[in-house]
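ENTRY TYPE: protein
WANTED: fold as tokens:
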Amino acid sequence: MNHHSFLSTLSLIVTLCIMASGCSSTHKDRETAPVRVNTEVASEQLSLGNRTYVGVVEEESSTAVSFTGSGMLTKVYVSEGQRVSRGQTIATIDATQARNMLRAAEAQMRQASDALARMQQLHDNNALPEIKWVETQSQVAQAQAQLDLAKKNLADCSVSAPMNGVIGRGVKQAGETVLPAMPVATILNINKVKVKVSIPEKEMATIQPSTPTRITVDALQASFEGGHIEKGVEADPLTHTYDIRINVANQGQRLLPGMVCNVELKGSGLSTHESGELTVPITAVQQSADGNKFVWIAKSSADKRQGMIAHRQKVQLGDATGNRIVISSGLHSGDHVITEGFHRLSEGTEVCL
């Protein structure tokens, strides 16, 4: 082999190696990890008229704790979120003046009582005019009234919980000056709670006081059955929604005011849909460039080397109820509708559930 032929052969080998390396690299680039998605199996059970809303837990009732007089807070024994029992001391104010008034009233009472004892002897011996006897008795009665008032004023320098409950927001701090009827703390009754939900006005007519409900609280990872529903009668002027309040038993006082929850109103009595219709979350429905509506579904791939792949399924829509919408055509019972993660998909993308 001459030198020229050797160089040509070497060049060909190098070229083939580069091409093989490029093909291998391209093949590896195509091997991407499946996209993780969340799905919901389409089922006729989803067409029972269930509606899901966002609600907020409220206390059944609240009571403001306040002083009948004014003064500076010397001690506050509770804090926000603390559970208290009936009769438990909540706070005290400076009682110096009240104690001084009590001592003065006690002295006045002793003086009036002594005068009454002396006058009693004269009265018994018929040596005291009747008008003087009546006047002495009146002075004793006045002194007793002043003493009772002084005792009450001293007792009012401390306030106690009128019921069992949980301390709410806005607790005053020691050193602040309070006025009569100014709330020092608020006690929330949470033996039962109410879940407030805003309902669109067009859906209010379908809700009855006995409509079955289920409340799910993510913070507690628990669900609760709702009870009697109280319907509001005034709409919000901006959102045109009405507030309803669902009574919920609160065993163990796990539900606390302010907790956010999902509220499902159940039963065919709510639905304007016919039995057998499929619904999906409104957020799962997309619109293509040509204006058609579609959802992503996960289906088995024809390629046995792949698992599930994403497929764009054109659908026709029906009425929306709550946060779900009816699919009048395009879906079948058992289809795996992709509800989360579809923003990273294209036709044929491999997915994992």
Observations:
- The CA atoms of residues 315 and 330 lie 4 Å apart.
- The chain has three helices and 23 strands.
- The first strand starts at residue 35 and ends at 36.
- Residues 51-60+189-270 form a domain with the Elongation Factor Tu (Ef-tu); domain 3 fold (CATH 2.40.30.170).
